[in-house]
Amino acid sequence: MSVLLCLLAVWAVYAIATNPRFQWDVVGQYMFDHRILHGLGMTLLLTVESSAIGVALGVIIAIMRLSPIPVLSVPAWLFAVFFRGTPLLVQIIFWYNLAALYPSLSIGIPGLAPFFHANANQLISPLTAGLLALGLNEGAYMSEIIRAGIIGVDRGQTEAGKALGMRPQRVLRRIVLPQAMRIIIPPMGNEIIGLLKGTSLVSVISVSELLFSAQIIYSQNLETIPLLIVASIWYLAATTVMSVGQYHLERHFGRGTGHPAPGFLEVWRNALTQAHARIRPTERVSS
């Protein structure tokens, strides 16, 4: 079965590589085009900034959700319900058109001069709208991931910290969160990888990320498929690097469990050993 799957994989790669309709020469021509690289940089920037907003906001919302005080827990629950319950694309378009609802934004005490006043059209640029939508949406999902991680830590750990005279904030920071990271890291990594791909949605408001850059080029030269392949290759490369980082984070935080994840070399060594063990009996039978 393994040999059959390998043969099918080799056949699929050969069929794709030798199909002239994929226009691999055009793919190679635009692979390192400055417009594509600029779009890739914008995609990575949006991913980093949005994930930073999401993680910071997620921690706050998760702690509020776990609070016994309704004034804190109810707004946090409503926040998570709203931003998880509406499509990300709708949120992006909504933030982009915020000026239709509030032409000007002001912060201050009623009856007095505002502390802050700005034109919404100038303040909410396409990049800002995309960053707000991605960051807030990510914060809602991160809050549930972080909350699940905190709940997954045995309550006896919290009680032991309090028995030692530690304040609740210190217990959370020094005892609960480090243990919760083993639960949090895998889904958080998947969420950030999904966020990287989700940045392609901001192309609808003309943010020059990777997909939008590819669209601009193929709208001029009509080479749609090769440019989409270029974008896909860069997305795949970025998500692969992030997956490797996630793997090593899981390995780092899993050291105290007694079952740390094996290293990449160990994984490949085990796979080759198993493949060799399957092949050798076949060779003996044939001989």
Automatic annotation (TrEMBL):
Signal peptide: none annotated. This is ABC transmembrane type-1 domain-containing protein. Pfam families: BPD_transp_1. The chain crosses the membrane at residues 39-64, 76-96. The keyword Nuclease does not apply. Keywords: Amino-acid transport, Cell membrane, Membrane, Transmembrane, Transmembrane helix, Transport. One of its GO terms (biological process) is amino acid transport. It is a multi-pass membrane protein. It is found in: Cell membrane. It comes from the Bacteria. NCBIfam families: HEQRo_perm_3TM (TIGR01726). CDD domains: TM_PBP2. The lineage of its organism: Bacteria, Bacillati, Actinomycetota, Actinomycetes, Kitasatosporales. GO terms for cellular component: ATP-binding cassette (ABC) transporter complex. GO terms for molecular function: transmembrane transporter activity. Residues 40-246 form the ABC transmembrane type-1 domain. Belongs to the binding-protein-dependent transport system permease family. It comes from Streptomyces malaysiensis. InterPro entries: AA_ABC_transptr_permease_3TM, ArtM/GltK/GlnP/TcyL/YhdX-like, MetI-like, MetI-like_sf.
